[in-house]
Amino acid sequence: MSLKRNGFSLIEVMVSLVILVIGLIGIFNLHLVAKKGSFESFQQTQASYYANDIINRMRINSSELANYAGTYTGSSISSAKACDVDVGVNTICTNAETRNWDLFQWERAFAGESEKSSDNTNVGGLDSATACISIVGTDVTVVMTWKGVRATSDGTDGQSTFIRSCGSSSDRRRALAVNTAIIR
């Protein structure tokens, strides 16, 4: 008499579960790598935005161009006279006051002060950011450096001395340099 078996044996079920678990672990790891890559890309986009923001501010206030040069860490300028244009408020600022206000707002932006967590720490902006501005005649170089998620190599390797001197050397340092000319 022949016995006919229907269904799965316990060994087959266990093998299937092991294969499923290995596949799920791979998917979860892929998800983590994608999130890190997405954050790195976001930081790069933010750095580009901040570099172009200060360049546009320098173009508007080009009579103060040479005075924008320096190294900024997010708290270099402690306060400044507000020079924004508000509806119904006429604030008259000199070019120097406008420069200080530009740098004040810019530093607060890349330090992330506009976004706070529930414990009141900055969560916006770039991680451990340092910005450097060099001005030679009408040639302007803006360098943004920040701390990346993964350790790779220093983002300033092979760059000019000015770019390498911006921020702290690290295998997680990322850098973005923008060169332009501002004609007065």
How far is the first residue's CA from the last residue's CA? 101 Å
Radius of gyration: 26 Å
**Lateral arrangement of strands in the main beta sheet:** 1-2-3-4
What would the average pLDDT be, to the nearest integer? Answer: 88
Strand share of the residues? Answer: 15-25%
Spell the H/E element sequence. Answer: HEHEEHE
InterPro entries: N_methyl_site, Pilus_4_PilV
Keywords: Membrane, Transmembrane, Transmembrane helix
Protein name: Type IV pilus modification protein PilV
Pfam families: N_methyl
Summary keywords:
transmembrane, Pilus_4_PilV, four-stranded antiparallel β-sheet, alpha+beta, 184 residues, 39% helix, transmembrane helix, Type IV pilus modification protein PilV, membrane, 3 helices, single chain
A few lines on this structure:
The chain crosses the membrane at residues 13-34. By secondary structure, the chain is of the alpha+beta class.
What would you say this structure looks like, in words?
The structure is a single chain. By secondary structure, the chain is of the alpha+beta class. 39% of the residues lie in helices and 15% in strands. The chain is built from three helices and four strands; from the N terminus they run αβαββαβ. It has helices at residues 10-60, 95-111, 161-164; strands spanning 70-72, 130-136, 139-147, 173-181. Strands 1-2-3-4 form a four-stranded antiparallel beta sheet, with helices on one face. It starts with 9 loop residues before the first helix and ends with a strand. The model has no long low-confidence stretch (mean pLDDT 88). Keywords: Membrane, Transmembrane, Transmembrane helix. It comes from Shewanella algicola. This is Type IV pilus modification protein PilV.
